[in-house]
Amino acid sequence: MRLLRTLSFVLRTSSRHSCTSSTVSLNQKINGYIRNGNLNEARKLFDQNSNLRNVISWNSMINGYIKIRQIQQAQNLFDEMPQRDVVSWNTMLSGFRDTQKPQKAHRHFLEMMRKGPRPQELTFAVLISAFLNTEFDVLIRQLHCLVICSGLNLNVFLGSALMRGYIAFGDCEDFCRVFDEILEKDVAPWNVLILGYMEFGFINKAQRAFDVMPEKNAYSWTNGISKLQQDHPAVCSMLSKIYGENGVWGRVNELKKLMRKGHARKQKAGSWIESRHAFI
């Protein structure tokens, strides 16, 4: 019986992702048009080859619309899909996150739970990011419980998203616990750890975390925060940059007001201006 179920699953999966040479060629052309910003040609090719396209073709087109913020077009295609996989659901979810539509992200996730595939770590990471700094962020703790009940592991994406959630809650204990539970840490959760310690006011802990992190990239605090003291004026500029990279715009505005009032002077150009995507 188990063998029959396994064979049935393989057949269903292979039918969704049927990849004849013609289908592979079609998908390559569609993705090529999308990469070059020619979504109209991609859609024309997609529509003209209904007998060749598979779920990858649909996902590519949906992702193309999301990239140019045509979320309704993406939704229309998603609704028309004959079959969807977890990538389809995650792609639409990322679209709602990127266009700042947390309510739609919430409804989409509930629909996925009812009739879609089993959510993955990336599903929860995207959903948590969509909820941050919105009225839906109160659900992040429940999502964490659901992650645990689902038996999912904390990878760097999900772990970092949860850490940012606990920063928003001001919960340093759970923030640190999530960091400890991430199985394999790259620079991303370490960067969020430093950000969190600074948010909680633990500048010395942030300094120590920077000193012991096993890997530093070009964006990891260009000269090292070990050179900064808690009352150093550069901290305001540094925090402003980090908060901006993380979309914590409320804190950015607070720091700008502080700088305008003269309580802190803006750091001179050179340290952070060139950095991008330093923190997840």
TrEMBL record:
Protein name as catalogued: Pentatricopeptide repeat-containing protein
Repeat positions for PPR: 54-88, 155-189
Gene Ontology MF, one: RNA binding
Keyword Cytoplasm included in the entry's annotation: no
InterPro entries hit by this protein: PPR_At4g14850-like_plant, PPR_rpt, TPR-like_helical_dom_sf
Keywords annotated in UniProt: Repeat
Originating organism: Fraxinus pennsylvanica
One family name in Pfam for this protein: PPR_2
Entry's Gene Ontology BP terms: RNA modification
